[in-house]
Specification:
Length: about 900
């Protein structure tokens, strides 16, 4: 991720328009009109050897004739001319370029792809940033910049809109202008040869003039870069996305449009959820979501109360709420009793609260006052249908007057002519108002989903139970052996051995080369067994009669094995039959059958899956997806998104299943695919789950040499276990230096509580009586792609894990400079541990390719300043923060960036 030189894109002092033209209707003429005829105050230099003047401005024959290097180049020449122009712009000192020309990678021709590679190479040599090619351009209305061939300018505002499609940009421009919606920036990314969504998310997250970031996405590009930037941005401002290509037909259209993969929509949704992005499905919803996020504070939960003067619209609102995944609030007995006192006897006596068609403004006001006191209500939707009995405006005024304090209030005065003025009154008072009940409900659920996403970003996961570490070497050897034999699937016994090595309970399965050997194994087991065909070419064994349950005794196994082999060899003569598999028959009455698995997505890499399993798994189609790595909180949330989750909670007298055992299985499957990039697919089906835990009855693992090494194929950088190090002390105590994890938040707060006020002041510069959950979550839930925090941990006097020291490094988006901070608690000071921790974090910075590490130190923090001196840091005054010193160290590039 990098924002290097993006200021030249959004705040250029000078622009060269290469390909400017006087020819009516040409792209060059439209760009010249928009750049020269607008409110942009910077210098614009048209470049074209065939013109003298364009719109009164002097035209330069080529870039060499320009009076100085432009900040930004805008190119609308034929595609073959673009790479040399990019190279020349770079040599002249330009820092950014917008290429509106098409005919590159999106054309899906060898020549176009080669030209795009040439222009990227030419730009990279000079650090020049490129937007496009094949884009409409860039608009920054606040400075009057319109470097696009859009048909109209944009109004200034605080929304940033970024889209791959130029047609979407121009359509939104037209749509927004009529509604008075303004923008801080609009960017058409086109083919994303260089600048992509990740770069712009980083830039716009730090832009004080941008209140919310809106995205139209066809393909995310670099998945890890996108997710890292999106997660960081969504922590500071709303990020709302429309993702095109949700269905196979749409995905094919994306491929033909941009030449990019759209990726599985379910995986994209999982990625958006993980990053805290609010997803909507239409452009209208995009702006509705931003509007409600600006108007209202997200509610505590999803329980909505509905007040209406018409039963029909109340039912419609209820249906919409359930469709959107919300909850119809259950009104308490005191609330119902209070409503009985103020409403006609014929009112609905429940939620929705039907006030009856003759409801006056006073009746609305009284009912609203009662319902908003109910602790089980998170939001209230007031609906009104026009009647000849009561004035809609009177009812609106009464509701507006009562709209202070209490739960979120939304309104929908349903209709058109007579309802326009009430809706205008609501809008003037900042009360969310909508033309239809469905729109109002969707707005409520936007807030619910946004709050849910923000909560998940800051929620502390519990620590998983202690257990033996996974046997990584055993699994690596098993996979290597299979690949050496030219196999791309593990046998079922091998697959279950793989699961067992990671602590996933599985029924022991033994391979038999013949029916006679299978009968002998059954005799050893001594009870009912399951017999299965063993073949790398048969995935769905049950469909072919390749699984027989509840065989009792060797004779039954022998007979069944012979007939199974004969039948399958006859029906599938090409299948390689390795023999038979024998396992004990497992009886778990009431257990639910799950499928747990992992697969590779072309955009986001490995994904983990859970849902209802069994032989009808495809027909049931119950699944939820998540990106690894997982923790207990994420695994539980993933499981809760399945339909089978309701059954796991216990139904019809069955006790609830051990949900934590299922969650741990998901965590371990995620760790398997992290540790072993050769795993391309993994299926556990069924995984039985009940009150006593889980057990895998069948498993299949497909393997291949990885396309990308190590963690590079993962969309989220996993916990860097390689940085763990045991530190022995002179007194025999051993401390563990390791990266921080989200589960460390409680220990971080306990450690902070033991710091003296002076230690807190020296580290944080201000008094802090305690470390809030929000701050502790931000410090412990880090993105290992952007920052690192190494903690020194060990047991305290009571045996509880304690954090004795923390050293932290936060890199800028360009990975050029990084700020450090360190604190070491008094119990272990004076042992050289501060120096050791600084050495390790500096080694880490070198491995990441960071050029400079700096920090801000209080002038009276003599110990820290002496440590920096010993490590070779330079001291400089820090005028921006009186009483502090800026220390910095330029690092040698002894090793490449760590993966």
């Amino acid at each position: 991720m990098t924002i290097r030189n993006l200021d030249a894109l959004f705040r250029p002092a000078s622009i060269a328009l290469i390909g400017a033209s006087n020819r009516r209707g040409s792209i060059g003429a439209i760009l010249a009109r928009n750049l020269l005829g607008g409110d942009y105050k910077g210098r614009v230099w048209p470049v074209n050897p065939s013109h003298r003047r364009i719109r009164g401005a002097k035209v330069y024959r080529d870039l060499e004739q320009l009076p100085e290097a432009p900040d930004l180049g805008v190119i609308c020449t034929p595609p073959d001319a673009v790479p040399p122009l990019i190279a020349e712009l770079g040599r002249r000192g330009a820092r950014a370029a917008v290429i509106v020309t098409a005919g590159f990678a999106e054309a899906r021709e060898a020549r176009g792809g080669a030209l795009q590679a040439e222009l990227v190479e030419a730009a990279r040599a000079h650090g020049l940033r490129v937007v496009g090619p094949n884009c409409v351009g860039v608009l920054v209305p606040g400075i009057g910049l319109n470097a696009s061939f859009a048909h109209r300018p944009a109004q200034p505002g605080s929304l940033a809109f970024v889209a791959q499609s130029g047609a979407i940009i121009t359509s939104v421009l037209d749509w927004a202008d009529g509604r008075g919606i303004g923008f801080s920036a609009l960017v058409s990314l086109g083919d994303m040869a260089d600048v992509d969504f990740g770069d712009l998310l980083d830039y716009l997250a730090a832009d004080a003039g941008t209140r919310a970031i809106l995205l139209y996405i066809e393909s995310v590009g670099n998945a890890r870069k996108f997710l890292s930037a999106a997660r960081a941005a969504s922590r500071v401002k709303p990020v709302v996305v429309v993702k095109a290509g949700r269905h196979p037909e749409g995905a094919r259209a994306v491929a033909s449009h941009t030449g990019a993969l759209a990726g599985s929509d379910a995986v994209c949704q999982a990625a958006f959820d993980r990053a805290g992005i609010l997803r909507v499905f239409t452009l209208a919803e995009l702006f509705d979501a931003v509007e409600i996020l600006a108007l209202a504070r997200p509610p505590r939960g999803d329980r909505l109360a509905i007040l209406t003067n018409g039963g029909g619209v109340g039912v419609l609102a209820t249906d919409a709420l359930i469709d959107e995944g919300g909850t119809l609030a259950s009104l308490s007995e005191p609330t119902l009793s209070a409503l009985d006192q103020i409403l006609p006897r014929t009112w609905s006596h429940g939620n929705p609260v039907d006030l009856i068609g003759d409801a006056t403004g006073q009746r609305y006001r009284d009912a609203l006052a009662v319902v908003r006191k109910d602790p089980g209500v998170d939001g209230i939707l007031a609906l009104h249908c026009p009647t000849a009995v009561v004035s809609a405006l009177e009812a609106a005024e009464a509701v507006a007057a009562a709209a202070t304090g209490g739960p979120l209030l939304l309104t929908s005065w349903v209709g058109d002519g007579a309802m326009a003025e009430p809706r205008r009154r609501f809008a003037k008072r900042g009360i969310p108002t909508y033309e239809t009940p469905e729109q109002a409900v969707r707005a409520f659920m936007y807030l619910v989903r946004y709050r849910r996403g923000q909560r998940l970003l800051a929620e502390t996961p519990p620590s998983p139970p202690e257990g033996p570490p996974p046997d990584r070497s055993a699994v690596a050897a098993l996979i290597a052996g299979a690949l050496a034999q030219g196999r791309h699937c593990l046998t079922e016994p091998e697959s279950k051995a793989l699961l067992a090595a990671y602590g996933i309970p599985a029924v022991v399965t033994r391979a038999a080369g013949s029916p006679e050997e299978a009968a002998a194994i059954a005799a050893e087991i001594g009870g009912p067994v399951v017999l299965k065909i063993l073949s790398p070419d048969i995935s769905h064994k049950s469909d072919l009669g390749g699984v027989v349950l509840d065989l009792l005794g060797p004779a039954a196994v022998l007979e069944t094995g012979r007939s199974m082999l004969e039948r399958i060899r006859g029906s599938h003569p090409q299948a390689r039959i390795q023999g038979l598999a024998v396992q004990p028959m497992v009886r778990r009455p009431g257990a639910q059958e799950l499928i747990v698995g992992a697969a590779e997505d072309p955009q986001f890499g490995p994904v983990v899956l859970v849902g209802q399993g069994g032989t009808q798994v495809e027909a049931v189609a119950d699944r939820a997806l998540a990106l690894p790595p997982l923790n207990l909180r994420l695994a539980r949330e993933l499981l809760s998104r399945t339909r089978v989750h309701r059954l796991l909670l216990g139904v019809r007298g069955q006790p609830p299943a051990d949900l934590d055992a299922v969650a741990l299985t998901l965590i371990r499957v995620a760790q398997l695919v992290i540790d072993h990039p050769q795993i391309r697919e993994l299926d556990i089906n069924p995984l039985l789950a009940d009150a006593f835990g889980v057990v895998a009855l069948d498993a299949r693992v497909a393997i291949a040499e990885p396309k990308l090494p190590g963690a590079g194929r993962l969309a989220i950088r996993p916990y860097p276990q390689e940085l763990e190090e045991w530190i022995p002390l002179d007194d025999g105590l051993r401390l563990l230096l390791r990266p921080i994890r989200p589960e460390d938040e409680p220990a971080l707060q306990r450690g902070f509580a033991k710091l003296t006020p002076e230690e807190v002041r020296l580290r944080f510069f201000v008094p802090m009586p305690s470390l809030s959950h929000e701050t502790a979550a931000r410090l412990s839930q880090i993105d290992y792609d952007r920052e690192m925090a190494l903690i020194l941990t060990g047991p305290d006097e009571g045996g509880q894990e304690q954090i004795y020291g923390v050293v932290r490094l936060i890199a800028d988006p360009d990975n050029e400079r990084a700020e450090f901070a360190i604190i070491v608690g008094q119990p272990i000071t004076g042992r050289g541990l501060g120096t050791l921790m600084m050495d390790r974090i500096l080694d880490y910075a070198r491995g990441r390719g960071i050029r400079e590490v700096f920090g801000v130190v209080l002038q009276d923090n003599k110990i820290m300043l002496r440590l920096c001196d010993r490590l070779g840091f330079e001291r400089r005054p820090n005028p921006g923060e009186p009483g502090t010193v800026l220390v910095s160290l330029v690092l040698s590039s002894e090793s490449g960036r760590a993966e």
